Each structure stands twice: as structure tokens, then as C-alpha cells.
Amino acid sequence: MNNIFEFLTPKDSTFFIEADCTLRQALEKFCFHKFTVVPILKENGEYVGSVSEGDLLRHIKGVGRFDLDDAQDVDLMQIERYRSYQSINITSSMEQVASLLLTQNFVPVVDDRGMFIGIIKRRAVMQYFMENFSVK
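^ thats the sequence. predicted structure below, dont judge the formating
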């Protein structure tokens, strides 16, 4: 298997949420794009983690009642995340990618400065195996 560039979905083709958005904005973006987990980026493009629909739902349940107007006052970064999606550096090996894909749907990829440059989807790696290694 070659380097991870072959599997990279670049940042400009990736849905992400800005770290300074509110719970309401996050909910609206999740509803529109229909993803279940997305990367969170600072304004400068630095990867700070990922957030899931489940994280948002657990927060709402913990509040006890929900009002969309109140959600405008909740910062996304205040919401506890159930699990972190570990990122890798662009120079990482495919073995490192495969190891993370065992427990993550995608692997965020960053450069040497921690700036988000894209993701590697589990589906892309599985498709590669299906196309290149036939099972007989």
C-alpha cells in the first residue's frame, strides 16, 4: 500500500464545524449535511477534535429541557465529547491509519503545525482493499 495521500479527502471537500459555533449552529449543520461525526477546527484551521450527534444529544438530555433559542447561547466547545477522534500527521504510515480506522469512521490528518488538511475515510481504505485484493 502506498502513502496516505492516495486516501486523503482534502479539507475543501470535507465538512467541518468551527470551534466558535454554538450548539444551535452545530445542530443546524448536522441536520443539513447528515453526518454523524465531524471535525472541529479553530478559525486558523487547527484541528481541535471531533463532535458527534450523540455528543449533542447527550448534552441536550443532560440539560433536562431543550429550547432552540437557548441553544444559541451554548458554545460548542462547552459540550463534553464522548470520545476523541485521534488525528495523524501527514507523514504517518498506512499502518497507523489502519489502526485508528478500527475504532474511528475517519482519521483527521494534520500538517506539522497541527493544521487540518483533510480526512481519510474508512470507506476509502476498504474500497481500496476490495478493488486490489480479491477473496477467492
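The domain at 4-132 is CATH 3.10.580.10 (CBS-domain).
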